[in-house]
Q: What sequence folds into this?
C-alpha cells in the first residue's frame, strides 16, 4: 500500500502545483490584458516584453477567439480558462487513476470481490461514454467520428429505447440524462448485493 500512499501524495502535490500555476498565469493574463487594452503604456518595457514573449504564446488562442467572434484582447483570459480546464481534467484523470489503482489492489487482496470491481468499472465506462456522447452533441461532433463513435456504440442499447419513451424538452434530448440516472440506480442496487 506504500505505492498507493505515494500516488496520493503525488496527486496532492500536483493539485498544489497546478493551483499556483493558475495563480501565476492569472497574473500574467491580467498584465497581458492590460497591455492589449492599453491600460499599460504600450511603449513601456513591460508592454514590449509581453508583446515579444507572451503574445506569441497566446497567438493560437487569439486566432480561435477572433474566429469565434471575440476580441483579440480577450485571448489572455481565454488562455487562462483553457489552462484551468486542462488542470481540472488532469486532476480528474489523476484521481481516476488513483481510484483504479486502489480498486485493483483491493481486488488482489480479496479475490472473491473482483466481480464487484468489474461491475463498478463497467458502470464507470458506460457513464463516461454517456458524458462523451452528450458533450459531442453540444459541439456538433459527428457520432461517426473515430473519437466519438465508441461512446455511441456503448450506449445506444440504453439511449435509443429511451429516446422513444422520454419526450424531448424543446430542442434538448434528455434521454442520456435518464440513462445516466438508470445506470446510477443500477450501480446502487448492485453495490448493495
A:
Amino acid at each position: 500500500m506504500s505505492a498507493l500512499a505515494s500516488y496520493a501524495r503525488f496527486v496532492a502535490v500536483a493539485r498544489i502545483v497546478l493551483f499556483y500555476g493558475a495563480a501565476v498565469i492569472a497574473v500574467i493574463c491580467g498584465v497581458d490584458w492590460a497591455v492589449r487594452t492599453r491600460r499599460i503604456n504600450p511603449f513601456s518595457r513591460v508592454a514590449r516584453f509581453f508583446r515579444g514573449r507572451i503574445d506569441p504564446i497566446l497567438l493560437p488562442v487569439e486566432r480561435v477567439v477572433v474566429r469565434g467572434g471575440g476580441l483579440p484582447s480577450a485571448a489572455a483570459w481565454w488562455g487562462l480558462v483553457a489552462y484551468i480546464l486542462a488542470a481540472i481534467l488532469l486532476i480528474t484523470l489523476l484521481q481516476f487513476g488513483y481510484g483504479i489503482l486502489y480498486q485493483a489492489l483491493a481486488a488482489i487482496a480479496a479475490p472473491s470481490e473482483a466481480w464487484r470491481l468489474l461491475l463498478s468499472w463497467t458502470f464507470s465506462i458506460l457513464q463516461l461514454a454517456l458524458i462523451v456522447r452528450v458533450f459531442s452533441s453540444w459541439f456538433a461532433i459527428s457520432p461517426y467520428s473515430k473519437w466519438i463513435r465508441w461512446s455511441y456504440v456503448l450506449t445506444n442499447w440504453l439511449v435509443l429505447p429511451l429516446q422513444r419513451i422520454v419526450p424531448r424538452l424543446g430542442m434538448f434530448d434528455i434521454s442520456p440524462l435518464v440513462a445516466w440516472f438508470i445506470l446510477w440506480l443500477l450501480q446502487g442496487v448492485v453495490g448493495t448485493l
Q: What stands out?
A: The CA atoms of residues 106 and 171 lie 44 Å apart. Helices lie at 2-36, 45-67, 75-109, 114-138, 149-165, 175-191.
